[in-house]
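User: Please go through the entry that follows and flag anything odd:
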Amino acid sequence: MSAPGIPAHAGIHHIKLPVTDLERSVQWYRDVLEAHRLTDLDHRRPDGTLFAVILDIPGIAGRVELRLDPATAAALRGYDFLTLTVEDRPALDAWVAHLDARGITHSPPIVALVGWLLVVPDPDGLRLRFYTKQPHGLDESAVEFGSPWLGTGPTAPGPAVQDVTICAVATLKALPGHADEVRDLMRSVAQATGQEDGCLTYLVHQAKDEPNTLVVYEQWVSPAAMGAHHKTAHMDAFKKAAGSIVDWPPQAQLLTPCD
């Protein structure tokens, strides 16, 4: 007697991605992939709190759910969760032009194992990829194994996370009448910082009962990475912009793990 066959399914229903800021991510996927938010499918808790949105994205089977889950988003930072097919190198170059026109951060075209590859980190650092259907035809020696955009998996166990990472909390207080400006400024800082090498987490929160107070939690792979962050162009721009709208200087504290 033959075993019963595998039950049928109808393909992908939806893909779920963790994010730290729903509105920011919706706008990013709209800019990059012309995503359309299906507001009638917004996910809300009984108290009305929005915790997930559903996107319809041309060319992607099923739908994409963005789920508010900062911890998971931070843990998956750098993970290449989705790879889309493009026909050939000219098609990839068209995506480069599209992204550049919108100011979207992306890798250069990369020689991957078979085809050309373009990597586009979303606002939380999860990596959307475009891979050519047509092989590049280059010798294996041309593959860019050393590219920071091309994941090749771990090569050896590293030190424990608590032995190398550094964490900090900073509190900023907007001067009266400048809360909206400070929030917008910190959104820009968070997006730029999230693309830095060595940044594991950079989350901006607003104090629940003090709308003029913002709290930043950041985690870096090393003290050197955090130090380099403070010398970046976007941090210089932040200091200049914030000097007249923030109670300066912000209050910062380094954190150490409990034994």
Notes: Helices lie at 22-33, 70-75, 89-101, 161-164, 179-193, 223-229, 233-242.
